[in-house]
Amino acid sequence: MDKIGWGQLGIVLALSRIFAEAANFPSDDINYGMQRFTVIVLSYILLGIALIPVYILTKNGASVISCSVSGKTGAVIMIIYLVMASVSTTTRLQFYTSSTIFDAAPPWILILFVSIVCLYGLFKGIPAVVRTGVIVAALFLFLLIAVIIGVSDHIQPDFLYAAFTDHPSTLLRDVIAEFSKNGELVIFALLCSDVRKNAFRSLYVCLPAALGVQLLMTFLYNTVLGEYLNNTSFPFYMLSALSDISLLQRLDGIDVVVWVMSAVIKISLISLAIYSACMKSFLNKKGARIATIAALIVSGAASLYFSVNTNDFLNFATILESGIPLVTAGFIVPLCNAVFRFLKGKKEERYENS
Question: How many CB atoms within 10 Å of residue 253?
Fold first, then answer.
């Protein structure tokens, strides 16, 4: 398989992360205001800590999914998490599109479209997906600049006021929920071997870009929408609808296209990560593709179910936002491998000295 550049991977991982910010489910209990800035920054600090085992392993060129018990165990844990992340992404995209300009479209049409495109991306390979992702990222950057220009006259800095929670437990809950949306941690851990060199540099692009854009979007939400923000299902879509640029008119149509394409890139990356986990652990190329196709089918079927059973999806989302699935797949599995390799190295050193 052809290799990709670390900058390319960093850009598409940032785009993948930003999608989660734009497609926050309306029932996600997100507290906006000044506290939101604190929540985002603290979540990235947690992410930096979680990346330490991955950094240790990738620096030494080791596999991330083998652990002290069995490489297959780590791979299965990561695959389960990635399927859950794919279900969440597809369901949120379906709800987003049906709540904006595709309200009359049956849920299965979008889910089938996304699944087919992601399946095509799987067969084309990571270079094609990443190149497409870079183009989508450029389109998003254009949209973001256009939105800023379009709403610049509506920005009111007076809307920024201290609104911190009275109870630290609420802040902690928000930070953990925000941290749990960083599934790119697991995606990077599995796809970093497809980078030509200096894979960890991808995060030097991804993390600052995603953090900066999230903070910028939060600033726009608060200063433009003000007190109406907490009653808005999709704040960025509302900003794009408010934007008035004579050349483009309203930007909400472009907004929907950008986020649909971003979700397709994200799910394609998830599919490629599942394929990589299967290939590195227990299946050959053909078997890994079949397993990944099966994962896409399961993800699509679950998303279709959740699209008409919102309460069940909220319970499912609560599990993801607890942070436990991400910590298990993205931190504990690499940590076990790092410890195992350290102990193995010490054992070999003692053997050579004896």
Answer: 14
Residue type, 48: G
Dihedral over Cα of 122, 128, 130, 133: its sign: negative
The structure tokens 């699509």 sit at 300
Which residues are within 8 A (CB) of 148 and not within 5 positions of it... i.e. 6 or more apart?
220
Contacts of residue 344, defined as CB under 8 A and 6 or more positions apart, other chains included, come to none
- Give, for 219, the enclosing helix (H) or strand (E): helix 202-220
CB 23 within 8 A of CB 92: yes
pLDDT in tens, 185-243: 999 989 988 888 888 889 999 999 999 999 999 999 888 887 777 777 788 888 888 77
6 touches 196 (CB < 8 A): yes
pLDDT digits (tens, 9 = 90+) for 59-108: 765 567 755 455 688 889 999 999 999 999 999 998 888 877 766 678 88
In DSSP terms, 249 is beta-bridged to 245
Give the three-state DSSP class for 4: strand
Angle, helices 252-281 vs 6-22, to 10°: value is 120
- 235: its two tokens: 């704040």
Question: pTM for the whole thing?
Answer: 0.91
C-alpha torsion sign, points 316, 320, 324, 329: positive
| 24, two tokens | 């926050």
DSSP label of 195: B
Can you tell me whether residue 249 is helix, strand or coil? strand
Strand partners of residue 195 = 4
Looking up tokens 């960093």, which residue turns up? 10
- CB-CB contact of 16 with 265 (8 Å): yes
DSSP string, 36-63: HHHHHHHHHHHHHHHTHHHHHHHHTT--
> First and final CA of the chain: distance in angstroms?
42
Cα–Cα distance for residue pair 93/97, rounded to 1 Å: 6
Give the Å distances, CA to CA, from 133 to 229, 237, 335. 30, 21, 30
Q: How far apart are CA 16 and CA 136, in angstroms?
A: 10
Distance of alpha carbon 150 from alpha carbon 152, whole angstroms: 6
Question: Residue 122's Cα: distance from chain center in Å?
Answer: 18
